[in-house]
Each structure stands twice: as C-alpha cells, then as structure tokens.
Amino acid sequence: MYLDQTGFIEERRRSEANLSTKSTSSCEEARFPSSNEYPRWPRRAEVTSGKRPGSSLRLIHRIRTAHEFSRLDAEGIQVRTDVLWCKFLADPAMSPPRVAFSIGRAHGHAVCRNLARRRLRELFRRQAQMNLLPCGALMVGIIRSKSEHMFDMSPEMLAQQVQKLVEGLPTQ
C-alpha cells in the first residue's frame, strides 16, 4: 500500500515495469568496501623484527642455465632405480653439486609435485652433507608409471631409493 500524490492509499503491485532504471547512490556505495573508503591506521606502532637468521649453507646448488641443461642432456649418463631416474654429468668444476628436478604434471597436482620436490631436495642435501654426492650436475625425476607408489612411500623407503641412485652414479 502506497500513498499517491493526493494522499489516498493505493495498492500497487511491484513489478519490473514500476522500477526505476536510474541507479541510486546507495548502489554505487555498495561497490566499494568500507576499508577503501575509510582507511584505518594500525593500532600498534610497527616494530622491526630482530636479527634475521644467518644465511643457510647451500650443500647443493641449482642448474640454472640452458647451456647446463643441454650439456647434461647430451653428455649425461642415465641411472634408474625402482621409482626414480637420474641423468648425471660428472664435472669436478661443479662443486657443490647442482641438482634439478623434473616432475611433470603427469605426477599429480602442484601440491603433490612440490611435496615430492621438497622431499627429494632434502634427501639429496643429506647425501651431499655426508659427502656421498659426487661433483657434477644431476637431473632427477620420478618414473611415470611409479609416481603413485612414490607418494605412498615412507621417508625411509624414499631415502633408500635416493641412496641406491647415488650409489649407481659414477664417481668421475
């Protein structure tokens, strides 16, 4: 029920025909969050943190240049275990050893691939820490048909696979 211009009560049905096509200011205000309209200052003063931790000791480096990758592909020796494969290029000038990981989309979504890469990187870092990893360049990957098995492996079983892989590498 609405009041008309003469003051009488009138019943109208609200339909699309009775709605105004002009946008109202309240609709425009709703487009912007209040934090943009009224920025707030932090309640506490910002304090710089203390000392940063020291730089980490890099026991393995990364293969970065296309030249290193192409040389590894052309001259590298392939070694395989049950789950992992590796291409290795012995080079005494590459100290500490340089490691690259080749884990494609066929091995699962990004979270699984990154988890596998982190696990493998840590295991190769431990091998380098014990001076078991020879100097040179390595490209490590997961055998495509065994990728499901790799993600189900315990850390000890994966460490054994990495150790078998490193033992199969030529020293020089």
Characteristics:
five-stranded mixed beta sheet; two-stranded antiparallel sheet; 34% helix; 172 residues; 7 strands; alpha/beta; Ribosomal Protein S5, domain 2
In a few lines, what is going on in this structure?
The chain has helices at residues 25-30, 34-37, 66-75, 110-129, 147-152, 155-167; strands at 2-3, 9-10, 61-62, 77-80, 84-90, 98-102, 136-142. With 172 residues, the protein is of the alpha/beta class. The mean pLDDT is 76.
Protein described:
Strands 3-6-7-5-4 form a five-stranded mixed sheet, sandwiched between helices. The protein is elongated, with a radius of gyration of 31 Å. It is of the alpha/beta class. The protein has a domain at 61-167: Ribosomal Protein S5, domain 2 (2-Layer Sandwich), CATH 3.30.230. Strand 4 (77-80) and strand 5 form a beta hairpin. The chain has helices at residues 25-30, 34-37, 66-75, 110-129, 147-152, 155-167, and strands at residues 2-3, 9-10, 61-62, 77-80, 84-90, 98-102, 136-142.
